[in-house]
Amino acid sequence: MDTVQEKTAAQKAVPDRTADQVVVIELEGELDSRSAPAVQQRVVRQLEHGGRLLLDVTALTYVSSAGLRTLLLAYRRAVAAGGRVALTGVSTELAEIMQATGFLHFFDCFETVADGLSALAA
Amino acid sequence: MSMLDGAARAVWAFAERVDAYPSRYIGGLPVSRGRPLPFGATAVDGGVNFSVYSNRAAAVTLVLYRRGKPEPFAELPFPDAYRVGGVFAMTVFGLDVEDLEYGYRVTGPARAKPADRFDDRLVLSDPYARALSGGESWGERPAGSPAPGEYRHRAFVPPEDFDWEGDRPPRIPDADLVIYEAHVRGFTRHPSSGVRFPGTFAGLAEKLPYLQELGVNCLELMPIFEYDECDNPRSDPTTGDPLHNYWGYNTVGFFAPKASLAATGRLGMQTDEFRNLVKQAHQAGIAVILDVVFNHTAEGDERGPTISFRGVDNAAYYMLDADGHYLNYSGVGNTLNCNNPVVRGFVLDCLRFWVTHYHVDGFRFDLAAILGRGPDGCPLANPPLLETIAHDPVLRDCKLIAEAWDAAGLYQVGSFPDYCRWSEWNGLYRDTARRFLRGDEGTARDMATRFVGSPDLYGHRGTAASVNFITAHDGFTLHDLVSYEHKRNEANGEHGLDGESRNLGWNCGAEGPTDDPGVIALRRRQMRNALLILLTSHGIPMLTAGDEVARTQRGNNNAYCHDGELTWFDWAQVDKEADLLRFARRAIAFRRAHPALRRPVHTIGQANGTRGDLFPDVSWHGTAPWRPDWSHHNRLLAVLLYDRTDKGDHDCVYVAMNTYWEPLELKLPTLPEPLSWHLFADTAAQPPHDAHEPGQEPPLADQERLTVGPRSTAVLTARRC
Q: Going by C-beta distance under 8 Å and a sequence separation of 6 or more, which residues neighbour residue B38?
């Protein structure tokens, strides 16, 4: 067995934090089929009762098809539960991939965490 | 909790399957009996279901690779118990689909027939592969010669879900279609395109506003199924550089969108990117039709590579003679055995897949006459494949367009087995329009027939059976049709012998580039004449990408092998040829504005007296109204088309086509008050007066006479004063 799994855990050790009732989840590393289930679980937990979620993707180095779907599922979950999901720290490369594949337009994207927080808190 | 959310949860409880657990280990992996349907590899709960069929195979082995690794990490022979008839099906659990490539080894029966070409030393691509890796970077050839038996076109399992957001097909009535034929890469690869993703599905999506503005509503894409652009063995005779298979009429994977046509192909996201293009096109009101090549495959003849079909069931997939040699009706080595019952199922599965998984709106079938041949190559009176496609419920709303001929002389324009469903590329329209445009004697009568939707060919089926075109990817561009009389194909590496020699073009007085202002002016007029005649004819008009801005291929009429300036759309032309582009836009808008030009039913030359029509649905005229000249030497065609608008208003369009080299003065049919003739277009006039914005046409000063310039076309419409 290879050891890619540890490397691809796309979650920071930093716990989710809440500011102005907005939950911030920081993701890092590779968001792919290996790391996606845990991320999804985490997102779902936060969105169970609605709520507002800011996904900080600044430290993501790679997003696969499964990763894109994880982001979109977060969005769909949020809509279904009456909550909101936004992204911050989207790199140019990630934005281009999401644009080309049609995933980008679902999301509000913010330059900084502070921008995202104030928009979601509003 | 919303109702929707609740319903989803209820369904989820039932979605958990009791058979979603492994029952044994094969090749070190947990597996269970698979589901034979659907064919191909499908992600299921906890694993991947693999299903492949071959009626002649004795055994099949599933071969699994980690992404990009040369050697497989597991080989799993299908147990006999996992076979249903000729279908081998197995679910393998615990696979990471994002790090997986797969293929099959297929073992033939103990007693081989001449038609068999089984070789279980080779790993074969799944005929139903929904995505292929190994060709993500356009034009990148494998370093050195491929190792014998190297597995190049590797199948993988792409995601099937996509958020279509209520996407709906535009369902444009056939008679309202204006088709635009384009090559995905060629449309935006040129540096002048200014798009973020040049040469890709995403790049094309960025240019949808251009198509909307032009007014076309149906995008016909040249091949986008996986092909190998590097499989051309020829070289450019001048530079020595290898030539490409740029067009892509040589399919490797029928269920897989081509990775190197996607900006995200290197990430394996070509399926998402193509879906997004279709979704965006639909949002722009544009239908998407695929040019599909079911007449042959990229495996060629006996000397060609074994990629998939040949090793899975050669005798089923290909037309063969008694000795097992390939019959070649396609001109490129082999012929897909389309009316073999197994292959019929394969073709139908494929078409349904593109409609259900990618929401495409129709298909144009390359060399479709082959689809009507039986396994022995003889044309069938009632070809089951064509009939099945025509009546299939999944395909019911799809546009079906046949290129109704093949490379072995079967020419079926007007006689293609249509089941009142199939339309045809009307090759007679193209040839007649070309002869008429260059002023050949004796063509006006035939042009009249083509102009009203070729009732001699399609009278029982309606005008939309005829896809009218003057140019297509095959042959000269419109600019070159009026600039060259001889093809210039030396760069194709076949000593200039390839490509059509009978082009029916006219260079307007000089061959190729010229400074002669008279020749240049005449060419401009001829391009406008062609566009205007095409866009006022009954039937479905098809434009070739770039013709609206005078794209040239420098006289090359078979540019399939060139990936560069010769074939790419140069977007600088949009400014350089702004006048021609405006003309084309207005001609398309005029077509849209006039139901008399978009009649679904052929005209009969009579007025509907009960609703108080002013004129017959079609009437022919000459220099004197109501007196057409059908003599051999006549080079004038004047026609009055009449219909009612949705609001019941009179819609009159008068088209005068003069291919004589002198001006002609025409006396016009008289209009009743308060209508008067207004001038929409006159190709003899200088831009921007060559065509007016529909609805803003100026009235004719002289309501009785119209002078049509030499080799010019004028279009009038009746409006209230």
A: B51, B128, B349
